[in-house]
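hiii so um. not sure if this is the right channel but i have a protein structure encoded as tokens and i wanna go backwards to a sequence. like what aa goes where. can anyone help
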């Protein structure tokens, strides 16, 4: 924010009644407080939805040191530092020391020890819409049974439990074939479940850190094996779109149902509600709103066993290698009823604004 903007706000606004300043980590909080000393007395809460210390770049010299340095300084000035996931917090704190080694001389020390006591984790709150009217019949029936099952506390998988599978799931995960054995059938699926092609959706930004190369490479392997599937490639595009999108669109033309950014939220939810499997191939993810929205719409998630994903998704929804991802999709293409009969063991309510609102109210309470 410019000095002129600071001066203009100082003239037009009074913060005498304010007690808390809530800011994103993309803001240089240190600079803000220096330019607006009247804000220094407020309780300063800094929220990290990402961190620049570990943001993936093609070459390390492409990394803008100033962005990461600003985030470290903002932490020092803040009273509370909030991260949207444990992965985000741990990756940031553990990278401070090596990041500061890029300073030629007079490197500050023990910054992690100064910042860590201020840190807490609070998930990003998602406003999940009511999608019941958009869901196909087999998903609606699944939701009804899932609601009955999760009324018992021991059936709910929370983020804290995401890495702790039940004994039966552990046994199943040891199987050499990571496929239908991890799925729980539910009565009421449509008779055409094994006839209608599997619908795969990829709802991410069209940028290199989302690793679209792995996604398209996997789909082309499925196509080479003459497996039947449909695909919807959603998400926002920016100026630098990886070339893999244009080349893959041509090769997958007969499989594509939707391609590119959808103009309305309702259209987006409609596609998610009619998809079977949602896939992440990301090299970079601190939370993953798109994956949780898709799960809310009844999609079976497949995510890397890395980054934030093990914090949210139980073992059956994680893959460790590209080969495992391809193997899972091969099985699902051959037997799409497996995913259509499965109730995903992730309670999206725990990431909703309804659930998290009291926690944010406590966070933003006056000191």
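sure thing!! here u go:
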């Amino acid at each position: 924010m410019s000095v002129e903007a600071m001066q203009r706000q100082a003239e037009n606004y009074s913060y005498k009644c304010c007690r808390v300043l809530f800011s994103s980590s993309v803001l240089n909080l240190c600079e803000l407080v220096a330019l607006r000393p009247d804000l220094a007395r407020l309780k300063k809460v800094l929220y990290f939805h990402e961190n620049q210390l570990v943001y993936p770049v093609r070459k390390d010299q492409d990394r803008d040191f100033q962005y990461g340095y600003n985030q470290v300084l903002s932490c020092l000035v803040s009273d509370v530092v909030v991260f949207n996931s444990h992965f985000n917090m741990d990756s940031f704190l553990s990278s401070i020391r090596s990041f500061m080694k890029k300073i030629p001389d007079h490197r500050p020390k023990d910054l992690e020890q100064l910042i860590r006591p201020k840190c807490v984790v609070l998930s990003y709150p998602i406003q999940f819409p009511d999608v019941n009217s958009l869901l196909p019949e087999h998903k609606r029936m699944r939701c009804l049974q899932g609601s009955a099952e999760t009324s018992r506390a021991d059936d709910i998988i929370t983020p804290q439990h995401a890495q702790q599978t039940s004994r039966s799931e552990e046994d199943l995960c040891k199987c050499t074939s990571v496929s239908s054995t991890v799925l729980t059938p539910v009565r009421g699926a449509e008779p055409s479940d094994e006839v209608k092609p599997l619908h795969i959706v990829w709802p991410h930004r069209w940028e290199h850190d989302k690793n679209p190369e792995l996604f398209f490479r996997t789909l082309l392997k499925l196509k080479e094996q003459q497996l039947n599937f449909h695909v919807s490639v959603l998400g926002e595009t920016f100026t630098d779109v990886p070339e893999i999108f244009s080349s893959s669109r041509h090769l997958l033309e007969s499989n594509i149902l939707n391609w590119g950014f959808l103009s309305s939220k309702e259209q987006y939810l409609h596609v998610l509600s009619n998809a079977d499997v949602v896939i992440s191939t990301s090299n970079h993810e601190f939370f993953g709103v798109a994956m949780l929205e898709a799960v809310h719409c009844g999609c079976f998630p497949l995510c890397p066993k890395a980054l934030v994903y093990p914090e949210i998704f139980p073992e059956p929804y994680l893959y460790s290698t590209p080969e495992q991802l391809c193997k899972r999709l091969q099985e699902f293409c051959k037997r799409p009823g497996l995913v259509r009969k499965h109730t995903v063991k992730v309670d999206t309510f725990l990431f909703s604004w309804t659930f998290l609102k009291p926690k944010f109210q406590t966070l933003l309470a006056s000191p």
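oh and The first helix runs from residue 3 to 12.
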